[in-house]
Amino acid sequence: MGFLEELRALFPPGRLLTKEAELAPYESDALTAYRKRPLAVVLPQRKEEVVEAVRLCHRHGVPFVARGSGTSLSGGSLPVEGGLVIALNRMNRILRLDPKARIAVVEPGVVNLEVSRAAAPYGLYYAPDPSSQPISTIGGNVAFNSGGAHCLKYGMTANHVLGLEVVTPEGEVVRLGGEGLEGVGPDLHGFFVGTEGLLGVALEVTLRLLPKPEAYHTLLAAYGSLEAAGETVSRILRQGLLPGAIEIMDRLAIEAAEAAVKAGYPRAEALLIVELEGPREEVAEEARVLEALIRESGAQEVRVARDEAERQAIWKGRKAAFSAVGRLSPDYIVQDGVVPRSRLAEALREIGRLSQAYGLRVANVFHAGDGNLHPLVLYDGKKPGELERAEALAGEILRLCIQLGGSLTGEHGIGVEKKAYMPEMFAKEDLEAMERVKRALDPKGLANRGKVLPEVAHGRG
């Protein structure tokens, strides 16, 4: 029996897609510059179906890609030509929520924000909050170690995953980690988080929940330059404050957000959003320190959210910034690099210079607290050569991050977009070590083939 015939025996009509029109929505993820046509897409509803699909791929040597909502900005869930897409959105149940243990056990297709909604009646929430949290899934967050605005204080997905049930590329089901904060032995679940689907598919994820902060203090400051906002970030952290979030948006990002959601932002070259959170007395004391520091920093205008509605309005504009930039340009590339906080202002100046040199606008919106830049390179793909110029500029920004002592990615992953730059950040021996791990767990090179690693054996790449 052939591969497709065996798939038909596993999945009923409607949950096995093979027609051209059915496959079209799965040809790319949020990085739409790359497209591939899979052989088929399956829509499992139970973890046993995922396991059987992976085992079938292993027997027939068919590459596979697990996919959630397809919000990857690095091509991380791009299909393999002639391979299988395992779309996990229908596995969207919260299997268990234990408010005493402060954990939630969820399927990989559960949307990030739904975890916090389910935990809210117990005074709990799930901390990692990527901008895509209303649509991105926990499985995708695990694959890319997603962060979000509040990762400065609370860390990334890896800091909130306690355990995983995983199917390996060879079809073996294993449990990694558990339900406690302290594990015994190697941190295997931490090792799996952020591997971009190269080592298998998460079937269940055990998440750590946190108590909702007692109080928030959300401040918005407008500046006459991006560099001034960047320098203020360093001053805040040198002062010993650890806000829940520190975000920066430049003039282009502000214009886009205003056009999209009318957040009521002031007109400025840069906006700084700082949010303190925690016990009421602690937040009140930190707010006095913060506001004094902001006044001394040369801010042109300062606003403090007076209630939850004003706080949400400030965050609505920031969360909408990526998609809103589509109002300014028919096409754009979202880059994701990291620089040391101490070199943030230097990085922003250089990005401005590169923007002028390439004749392309760059909108900047980023997690300033941990130096995670998200420059959006604006271009028109219908103009000859402009996509290539935009990609070259995006590449220069990545090289800049490495040169300043940073990283190729903070949370969007390597995917297909950045794998050519891996040798610029990692030594040959480092890449060979990554290859050995991949080959040991996936000898046939089937799981998310062609991603992350620049030169791959067994026909991958």
Essential attributes:
461 residues, alpha+beta, Uridine Diphospho-n-acetylenolpyruvylglucosamine Reductase, domain 2, Uridine Diphospho-n-acetylenolpyruvylglucosamine Reductase, domain 3, Alpha-Beta Plaits, seven-stranded antiparallel β-sheet, five-stranded antiparallel β-sheet, 20 strands, 34% helix, disordered C terminus
- Average pLDDT reading: 93
Distance between the termini: 29 Å
Supply the number of structural domains. 4
**In percent terms, what proportion of residues is strand?**
15-25%
Would you tell me which CATH topology of the largest domain applies? Uridine Diphospho-n-acetylenolpyruvylglucosamine Reductase, domain 3
What is the 3D shape?
globular
Percent helix, as a range, is 25-40%
Strand order of the largest sheet: 15-12-14-13-18-20-16
Q: What's the number of helices?
A: 16
Q: List unreliable stretches of 5+ residues.
A: 456-461
- CA radius of gyration is 22 Å
Oligomer: single chain
Tally of strands: 20
Q: Examine the secondary-structure arrangement and name the CATH architecture of the largest domain.
A: 2-Layer Sandwich
Question: What is the CATH level 1 assignment of the largest domain?
Answer: Alpha Beta
Query: What summary fits the major beta sheet?
Result: 7 strands, antiparallel
Structure class: alpha+beta
